[in-house]
Each structure stands twice: as C-alpha cells, then as structure tokens.
C-alpha cells in the first residue's frame, strides 16, 4: 500500500503554489493524494496569517485533527505562514503535531520527513526550488515564482517575518520553468512574488520589465499575468513591456491600501496619494483599456473620517474594476501594533460598507461596457454552475461563462460575444 497525503491550503497564490510544490515532492516519493483526510497517512495544513484570527483558526483545526490522529495515526505537519510565525509555540500548544515547517522550507520537505525534524523555520541558503517537482493543479495555467520574500517594511504586514528577505530567481531558471509549463499545455503563466516587480536577476541585474518581455516572447505563452506589484516599484520598463506585448494581461493589481498620504506614511508604503495617482495615470496613458484592481485596509490605527474620505475620493478617481478591502487586523510583532489600537469595530464595518457600495457602481459600469462586444477568452473548462457551458477568462481577468463547442480544447482562445454582465462575471456565446 502506498502512502497517502492530504493538503489543505489557505491564503494567497504563493501558498497555493507552495502546496503544489509540497504535493509534487510527495508524489515523487511515491505518495498518493487523497481528498478525504480520514484516508491520509500524512496531513499538511498550509496556513495563512496575513489577517484575522489565523492562529486561532489553525489551533481549532488542530484540535479536531487530534481526534483523527488517535483513530488513524496520521502524521500532521503545519506549514505556511502561521507555522513560520508561531514556530515552537505550535509544538507546545499542540504536541500531537509532528512537524512545523515555514514557507522557506517547502523545498526541504524531504529532509524534514526523512530526519523526523520537528521544527524547520530558519530560512535556508538554498531554498531548493525544484521546478520539475510541481504538481500543477490547473491544466491550462501555471504559477511561476520569480521572487520570494519581501524587503518592504509596511507597518501592518506580517509577510517580511513569515517569508523572509527578498530572493530573486535567476532569469534563465524562470524562463526554463515557463517553457516547461507551456510544453505541458499550461499556456497561461502567472509570475508570482510578494513584490513581483522588485525582481532583479541575481546574475545579470535584469529587472522585472526585462523578464516580463522575455517571458512574453517565449513560444506558446498565450497569456502572461503577474502578482503582486508594489506601486513604488512600477517603472517605465514594466509599463513598456505591458504596452508592447499583446499577450501580457491588461490587468494590474496595484494595492493602494489607503487614499490618505498621512495614513500611507504611517503604513510606510513609500508613496503618497499624489504619487500613486501619477503612477496610475502613466500606466493608463500607455495602456488605456487596463483593468486596475486594488487592496484597501480600513481602520488602520488613527484613521480619521477625513482620511477615509480621501480613500473614497481616490477610489472615485481611479474607478477600479476590482477591489478587495479588509478591516485592519493587528498582526503580532508588526510595528503598527505600537502605533495604536485598531479603530472601533462598528466604525470600521460601516466604512467598509460605504467603500464597497461606491466600488460596486464602478464594477457594474466596467462589466456593462463589455455587452455586445466580442472578446478573446482563454478556455479553462466547463462552467462551475452549469456544466453545459464553458468557462474562461478575458485578457483583463474577468470570468466569462459562455455557450460554445464542448469539444473545445482547454487552453484555446476563442472569440466570445458578451450578452450579459452579471454580478462578478460575464455571459456570452462563442462566435465562429
Ligand atoms: N490587516 C488587514 N489587512 C491586511 N493586509 C495585509 N496585512 C493586513 C493587516 N494586518 C491586506 C493588504 C494586502 C492584502 C494581501 O492583505 O491589503 O494588500
């Protein structure tokens, strides 16, 4: 009987990719993946600690797994950012956990299992990123890490602690991985990094724009996406690469966090409201049809009604197609904890609601603008809610559910006439 494993993943795309790397490693060792934790010899929790009650969530999950372990004897590993943040405390509070392994050690799962290591939370010199041992879950799309860690010091953010200092991968390694992914049918590539546009090749010094251009020019790359960009790292070479390559997505996630320069300074975001808006204008001048998306934190310590009004007016000015907003959540050990307490929860909730109401209009307007147009859609598979329809995404990242030939090969790009805009998605019909 082969060994079996079960992985649960929370959080960002980087975590999802880490799970694919863990999974790929286990498959190479002869393990088989199961979707039912009661059937697993090894249970991995790949955790996220960016917001909310992440630690509590993990401990309550571990409480339930303790029972399961009594019955099945499964090994339990806690991975990801909560593992990095809590480290030894997890082993103390939940001694039935077999090992705790941070994001810097994903490539070292082998040794952890072989040596029975209980705590792997140092950042090894060699992260052992094995591009050939990634168990990619999507048949059409591949995530490719280009830079790990983060050197920014945003005062609210736990990431510098959990993912360590920035390390860029060599240019040629990245391009080789993209080629391998494309050869396996993953024609959509998403380059990943906490601050993806801080990329610098450690060998040649090539910047992110150069990498984007080189990846876009590889044979067979139908779509090229990337996340997440930091506004202060946007430069001309990045904008030019996006402008000059039709297969680079016209979608840019550019988290602003707040529209108030006073709050931005206290967040240590390294730009002002004016500078951010200037960056947006520069990008729009080069790529008028771009779909901007953003993240906003509401209720940062000391955020006044005037600060919040500035956030609303910035949103009004940019008119984002997509927006993700969160209540500020104090992260253990981050500098913002010393700035002051979070805002009163009722006020934060009310601000969040006003922000969503405003954004809703902009999103609706953007989605409605596609009606009647024929847009290229990369086919990802059957639609989730209606298997008689196909589903895919536009170049600028909207989900489209549409009627089309069910025999359409996954990963092809079809023209789809958009008939209707729904709440978050578009509907249409493939045209011949
Ligand atoms: N509280 C609330 N939101 C946060 N984010 C990061 N840290 C925090 C925090 N302490 C949000 C930011 C970031 C997104 C990934 O999560 O908006 O861009």
Write up what this structure looks like.
With 432 residues, the protein is α/β, with parallel strands linked by helices. The chain has 4 domains: 117 residues, Rossmann fold (3-Layer(aba) Sandwich), CATH 3.40.50; 112 residues, Transcription Regulator spoIIAA (2-Layer Sandwich); 88 residues, Transcription Regulator spoIIAA (2-Layer Sandwich), CATH 3.30.750.200; 58 residues, OB fold (Dihydrolipoamide Acetyltransferase, E2P) (Beta Barrel), CATH 2.40.50. The chain is built from 14 helices and 19 strands. Strands 2-1-3-4-5-6 form a 6-stranded parallel sheet, sandwiched between helices. α5 links the parallel β5 and β6. α8 packs parallel to α9 and α12 packs parallel to α14. The chain is globular. 41% of the residues are buried. The structure holds 5'-deoxyadenosine.
């Amino acid at each position: 009987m082969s060994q079996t494993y079960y992985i649960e993943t929370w959080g960002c795309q980087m975590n999802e990719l880490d799970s694919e790397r863990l999974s790929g490693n286990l498959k190479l060792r002869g393990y088989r993946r199961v979707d039912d934790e009661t059937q697993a010899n090894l249970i991995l929790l790949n955790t996220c600690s960016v917001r909310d009650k992440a630690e509590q969530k993990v401990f309550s999950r571990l409480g339930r797994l303790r029972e399961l372990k009594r019955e099945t004897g499964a090994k339990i590993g806690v991975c990801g950012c909560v593992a990095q943040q809590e480290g030894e405390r997890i082993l103390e509070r939940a001694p039935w956990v077999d090992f705790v392994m941070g994001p810097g050690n994903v490539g070292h799962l082998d040794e952890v299992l072989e040596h029975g290591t209980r705590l792997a939370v140092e950042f090894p010199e060699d992260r052992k990123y094995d591009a050939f041992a990634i168990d990619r879950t999507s048949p059409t799309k591949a995530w490719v890490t280009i830079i790990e860690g983060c050197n920014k010091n945003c005062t609210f953010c736990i990431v510098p602690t959990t993912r360590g200092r920035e390390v860029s991968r060599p240019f040629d390694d990245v391009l080789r991985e993209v080629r391998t992914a494309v050869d396996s049918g993953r024609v959509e590539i998403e380059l990943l990094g906490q601050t993806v546009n801080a990329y610098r090749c450690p060998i040649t010094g090539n910047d992110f724009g150069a990498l984007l251009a080189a990846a876009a020019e590889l044979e067979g790359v139908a779509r090229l996406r990337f996340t997440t960009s930091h506004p202060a790292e946007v430069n001309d070479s990045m904008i030019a690469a996006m402008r000059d390559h039709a297969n680079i997505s016209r979608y840019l996630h550019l988290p602003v966090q707040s529209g108030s320069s006073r709050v931005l300074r206290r967040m240590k975001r390294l730009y002002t409201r004016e500078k951010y808006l200037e960056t947006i204008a520069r990008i729009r001048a080069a790529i008028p049809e771009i779909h901007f998306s953003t993240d906003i934190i509401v209720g940062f310590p000391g955020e006044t009604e005037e600060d919040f009004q500035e956030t609303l007016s910035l949103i009004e000015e940019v008119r984002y197609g997509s927006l993700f907003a969160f209540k500020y959540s104090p992260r253990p050990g981050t500098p913002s904890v010393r700035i002051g307490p979070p805002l009163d929860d009722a006020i934060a909730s009310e601000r969040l609601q006003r922000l969503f109401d405003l954004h809703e209009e902009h999103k609706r307007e953007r989605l409605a603008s596609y009606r009647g147009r024929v847009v290229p859609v990369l086919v990802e598979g059957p639609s989730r809610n209606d298997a008689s329809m196909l589903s895919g995404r536009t170049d600028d990242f909207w989900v489209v559910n549409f009627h089309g030939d069910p025999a359409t090969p996954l990963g092809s790009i079809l023209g789809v006439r958009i008939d209707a805009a729904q709440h978050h998605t578009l509907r249409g019909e493939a045209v011949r």
